[in-house]
Amino acid sequence: MKTTFVKSIILGLFAMASVATVQAEEAGKEAVGKESSATVKVLVVGLDNVSSNYFPESMITEETGIPEDSIGDTYNRIITDNIIHANKNKEFAFISSEKFADAEKLLGNIQVSGENEESYANVSQIDSQNYKQLLDEAHADYVLFLNQHYLKWQEKPLRTLFHFVSYSLYDKNQKEVTKGNNYFTCMNLEKADKLSKASRKSSSKIASTIIKSIDK
């Protein structure tokens, strides 16, 4: 009898512990879900739009080793990754559109107007259903377009290469929230790893500007 009674107590305690563990796990999942849903998510879309007042694509490839058909993708990936890693605000999250295979198809050919470093995306031509579908897939609240990477070579007073990155931020209703550009400098055309280091501060400023624009 005593043995049976002790076994019953042990089994009862074990059952209670198991239930408590499951409840704790569920509560944790619920908390994470709430935190995740409260986070403002910004989808970053880089447009394949690199231009220069001096460097043709063939020269960029020759100096950097980046194939001509990958220059835009490479530059956009560098800036996007830097923006994502620069953000320390836990209330916001930047997401790369590269995670969504149909992003390019849904967005189509986005029109960019303006000249040189002042070139900005116009999303009015994007089908509203496609736009909504992409944001739903990404669980995103906004889209940050990296409109153009403009390489501006300056001979005087010092030989300097300015990298201008223009951007536009749109909300779920395809309404423009803000736009602008930021730049960083190099002495020459740089390979991808050095370009990543050179553009970190500039990318961080873009991230901060976007967060401030949303947080107004």
Give the helices and strands, then pairings.
Elements lengths: L1 H37 L1 E7 L3 E3 L4 H8 L6 H16 L5 E5 L6 H5 L3 E5 L2 E5 L5 H11 L3 E13 L5 E12 L4 E11 L5 H7 L1 H15 L2
Parallel strand pairs: 1-3, 1-6, 2-6
Antiparallel strand pairs: 4-5, 6-7, 7-8
CATH class descriptor: Alpha Beta
* Mean pLDDT level: 87
The number of distinct β-strands equals 8
SSE string, helices as H and strands as E: HEEHHEHEEHEEEHH
Sheet of most strands: 6 strands, mixed
Q: N-to-C terminal Cα separation, in Å?
A: 71 Å
Structural class: alpha/beta
Total number of distinct structural domains: 1
Task: List the uncertain runs.
Answer: 9-22, 27-35
How many helical elements?
A: 7
Helix content: 40-55%
What global shape is seen?
Answer: globular
CATH fold annotation: Rossmann fold
Our estimate of the beta-strand percent is: 25-35%
- Cα Rg: 24 Å
The CATH architecture category equals 3-Layer(aba) Sandwich
Give a structural overview.
With 216 residues, the chain is an alpha/beta fold. The protein has helices at residues 2-38, 57-64, 71-86, 103-107, 128-138, 192-198, 200-214, and strands at 40-46, 50-52, 92-96, 111-115, 118-122, 142-154, 160-171, 176-186. Strands 1, 2, 3, 6, 7 and 8 form a 6-stranded mixed beta sheet that branches. The longest helix is centred in the first third of the chain and has 37 residues, at 2-38. It is globular.
